Amino acid sequence: DVYKRQGVNCERYNTGIDGKNVRSKYGIDQQAPLIGIVARVQPHRRFEIFLKAIQLVVADIPQLKVFIIGRGTHIQEVAIKPAQEMGLSENIFFTGYQLHGYPEMLAALDVKIFLVPGSDGSCRAVREAMAMGKPVVVANRGMLPEIVDDGVSGLVVDDTPENLARAISLLIKDNQLRVTMGEEARKKMYEECNLTRQLEKIEDVYRRALANTDQ
């Protein structure tokens, strides 16, 4: 599978990281449901779908909080103004690009959302969240269905606002399902995409090749 060639640093992104300080920083209750999307805030990243879905979920779960983690030259018109016009200012936090403390940002989340593969198509942010035991809701596009096993390590949806909202609500309301999928997500990354293991396998190939040349 293509995604197996994309390694993730499972030492940096692990389930032992604490996100409580991140929640405190943004004034979010430790028990409040918190989801996040990591992406450049550009028109083609389908933020209009994401925001409409959040509006639907908030109507049912008003305490929902959302991190939009990223930046973009069009962030005002693509996300900030629409969120304000939709009455979501109390629910959505624009954290900007996170160079330092990014794993802690992911650790604070209950669910990770991803709709459009980036320019490299590798969906690294999805694999990093999964390595940290976070269930992921992704769109049925690009290699995302290869990374996330629908109904096992997350949910794969045709990303209409309604489908996305149903998936988010399901995971927010069902704590056991969220935990189980998170565990499966972590397991998959550690077994199939662990960068350390991939490097060990490459080193082993070179060792065997060098050993053969000495014979």
Would you kindly provide a brief summary of this structure?
With 215 residues, the protein is α/β, with parallel strands linked by helices.
Walkthrough of the structure:
With 215 residues, the chain is an alpha/beta fold. 46% of the residues lie in helices and 12% in strands. The protein contains nine helices and six strands, in the order αβαβαβαβαβαβααα. The chain has helices at residues 20-25, 47-60, 75-85, 102-107, 124-131, 144-147, 161-173, 175-192, 195-213; strands spanning 34-38, 65-69, 92-94, 111-114, 136-139, 154-157. The chain has a six-stranded parallel beta sheet, sandwiched between helices. Helix 2 packs across helix 7 and helix 5 (124-131) crosses helix 8. The longest helix is centred in the C-terminal third of the chain and has 19 residues, at 195-213. The two termini are 34 Å apart.
